[in-house]
Amino acid sequence: MMNGGPAARSGKLSIGDQIMSINNTSLVGLPLATCQGIIKGLKNQVQVKLNIVSCPPVTTVLIKRPDLKYQLGFSVQNGIICSLMRGGIAERGGVRVGHRIIEINGQSVVATAHEKIVQALSNSVGEIHMKTMPAAMFRLLTGQETPMYI
């Protein structure tokens, strides 16, 4: 959100929220460009009615791995979860493809090399606590991408 912009000033939206409808016009299933056009068309309105679904950007994951002989059931590249084994312990724990791992067992891995992330995960047994967020959101929040304000 743009600092000081109408969305930020309202205090009603949070980063990661999903806008389902604007002024009773559903945005569900519409292409991003169409949604952006609808929002741009509301620039001169004093009041806008939004229907949102709160989606906090950080997801907490709990993987229960009783022994090293059990595969975690996901692949990771540069901290981003690339694939997930259907029915595996990672899927049951809430791991999501396309999410960036930001923390493992209370330790930040934001600036950690790929090999060290893989090593930390490979050697973990018992309850593995991870925090993740959508990779696109991570890139925006860390300045790797520039947001397009509408």
Automatic annotation (TrEMBL):
MF annotations from Gene Ontology: amyloid-beta binding
PANTHER family: AMYLOID-BETA A4 PRECURSOR PROTEIN-BINDING FAMILY A MEMBER 2 (PTHR12345:SF12), SYNTENIN RELATED (PTHR12345)
Keyword Repeat set for record: yes
Organism of provenance: Onychostoma macrolepis
UniProt protein name: PDZ domain-containing protein
Gene3D superfamilies: 2.30.42.10
Swiss-Prot/TrEMBL GO biological process terms: chemical synaptic transmission
Residue ranges constituting the PDZ domain according to the UniProt record: 1-54, 60-136
Domain of life: Eukaryota
